[in-house]
Design a protein that fits this description.
The protein has a four-stranded antiparallel sheet, with helices on one face. The protein has a two-stranded antiparallel ribbon with strand order 5-6. Helix 1 runs antiparallel to helix 2. 21% of the residues lie in helices and 34% in strands. It is of the alpha+beta class. It has a single domain, classed as 2-Layer Sandwich (Alpha-Beta Plaits). It has two helices and six strands, in the order E-H-E-E-H-E-E-E.
């Protein structure tokens, strides 16, 4: 099981969500509002604040779905502009489903 963590532009969230929901067996995701900056920084003259709003997607998926989820996010979130975001794949050792007590290395 892996965690796919993506930081995308807020205006791309609905497009990314729709595309991910078309993937057979898509396990679902969590969305978090966040702010950040990367190599490209903006300067606000009045109140210097380099942070830009982003949406953080957290998806825990079985290894068999990781590539399609990753590629879907990379393709659909892309606008061609700086600040489109980033996508990471991290190892998730094990997960548990609270409602059933189920515990599995590939919970997804």
């Amino acid at each position: 099981m892996k965690e796919i963590r993506a930081y995308i532009q807020p205006h791309r969230l609905s497009h990314v969500t729709m595309a991910l929901m078309e993937i057979p067996g898509f396990p679902g995701m969590t969305i978090i509002d966040c702010e950040g900056f990367g190599r490209e920084r903006t300067e606000h003259i009045q109140d210097y604040k380099p942070f830009l709003p982003k949406k953080r997607l957290e998806i825990f998926a079985p290894d068999s779905l990781v590539d399609i989820i990753f590629e879907t996010i990379m393709h659909v979130a892309h606008s061609g502009h700086h600040g489109d975001g980033k996508v990471y794949i991290l190892d998730a050792i094990e997960g548990g489903r609270i409602s059933t007590g189920e515990r599995d290395a590939d919970l997804g």
